[in-house]
Structures
1.
Amino acid sequence: MTETTLIVCTTCRRAAGGPPATRAPWPGTDMLEALESRELPEGVVTLRPVQCLCACAKGCTVALSGGPERWTYVYGGLDPAKHPDDILKAAAIYAETADGIIPWADAPTEIRTRAVARIPPQA
Ligand code: FES
């Protein structure tokens, strides 16, 4: 089990990449609350809210990060009403990896089809 951070954009105005909400609460805030209301999988030690992952047209967005020696994933087009459980399943798989690479076939379908970027380790 390797330390994993689930980063959540709280300022996303779109759910599932749809039209932007015009007033708060923002879908990104809803996503954070939905994730906070669930039990984090073992090994996911931190839920980290941030403002903007620079994928605004693809909100809601989250990222999985696990330190400088592991790959980082950014996911978008997520819906706080539909995807929190799948996000946590992907986080649990990520937490089990040494290199941060989630085997494509293992990731929940709703998550693997919403990858926006995969960023290599820094080391
Ligand atoms: S506001 Fe969420 S990615 Fe920019």
2.
Amino acid sequence: MAVGLAGRDPSGAEVVVIGGGVHGAAAAFHLAERGVDVLLVERDELAGGPTGRSSAICRAYYTNPFLARVARESLDLLGSFSERMGGRDAGHVITGGLFLHGPEDVSAVTEAARALTAIGTTTDVLDVAALSDAFPRFSPDGLGIAAHEHGAGYADPVATTVGLAHRARELGARLRQYTAVTRLEEGRGERPHRVTLSDGVVIEAQRILLAAGPWTGALARHVGAELPLTIERHFVATFAWGGATAVPHVFADVTQGYYAKPEASGGFLCGPLTPEPEIDDPEAFEQRILDAEVEHLAAGIVRRVPDLERIAPRGGWASLYDVSPDWQPVIGEIAPRVFVDAGTSGHGFKLAPGLGREVAALVMGSPDPGLSDFAPGRFAADAPLTAGYGQSRILG
Ligand SMILES: Cc1cc2nc3c(=O)[nH]c(=O)nc-3n(C[C@H](O)[C@H](O)[C@H](O)COP(=O)(O)OP(=O)(O)OC[C@H]3O[C@@H](n4cnc5c(N)ncnc54)[C@H](O)[C@@H]3O)c2cc1C
């Protein structure tokens, strides 16, 4: 069965990327841009998994220096998406982002903002008085400090993923949608790996990248690797402004454990910053948001911005985070020439466009040394990374 462009061996690929979420699509784009023969395989449609349900807030407000740099590169790529992706639109909107912290975070936020500003991610620090001057609608109750990242905003997760994958295809990548990888056989020595697809086609590949989100752990077991990833159900509630003036920017309230962003279509969206209970089966979970979850988020919003007392729930949804023990991504080689990029722990959308370049370099054998901190072996070596602030490790 022909799967490729004319001139390319349809039964082989230099790299097979498994998973057409934003991470697989970004890696495929960067590999194709390097001239690598790449096949991207997605069992559903592009962004058909958690990526397509993402809030897609894009910020470079990170405490981890490597991720702060990569997120900065992602924002730059999103800012020039149309030029880089052949005229395609990622729906990227810069709103600024306001991050509200308790007194215990004063020194960590001050240091993070200094480091971010030094690498071009302009981030102002506001004490409580300055916050009340600049953002008078926000109650200062329980706050000790705030950070304002000028370049934060959001994007359209489906348009971003489709744009990356389609540009990859223009650059020579092949794309199989509605096709699952059902079996991986590790090639030993010089022998290529064998990747079996749900239609029976077997692809021989020199290198494999697993970017299958919550399904990555199961695929890794085909090559004998056990990844320390868990899965959490996470929800998002949407609201109409209810007659109030819109809050036109992204904000996150670390003291109450939620984030919010205006929606391109009007109204706003809100979700938790903190961990949720684990689930066992990524095929069986409650995809609707529950009334109690909506009420909890709404109460926190109104406590922080009292003039939003008449916001009206419009619905919402739940999807999955693939979570690592330290809430930082898991990226590295898990068997000879088999690589993983997963465990993005609910903050991986905005990392992907920039991180894809680093992952492509890793897969092709020339990784940035900084990426080694994210290797799956860090947990067995008792060298987890720090992340975010308190329970809000999702802030990276
Ligand atoms: C509700 C929610 C809100 C979020 N908000 C934000 C946010 O504001 N900002 C942010 O940066 N991040 C956010 N995230 C996190 C972000 O969306 C994820 O980190 C990111 O989308 C992960 O992308 P991925 O490509 O690694 O995985 P996924 O999106 O999970 O993609 C993996 C793909 O692999 C496919 N697949 C699985 N098994 C196979 C197989 N055997 N063969 C072929 N294909 C297979 C799946 O169908 C899926 O499409 C949010 C996530 C959720 C769920």
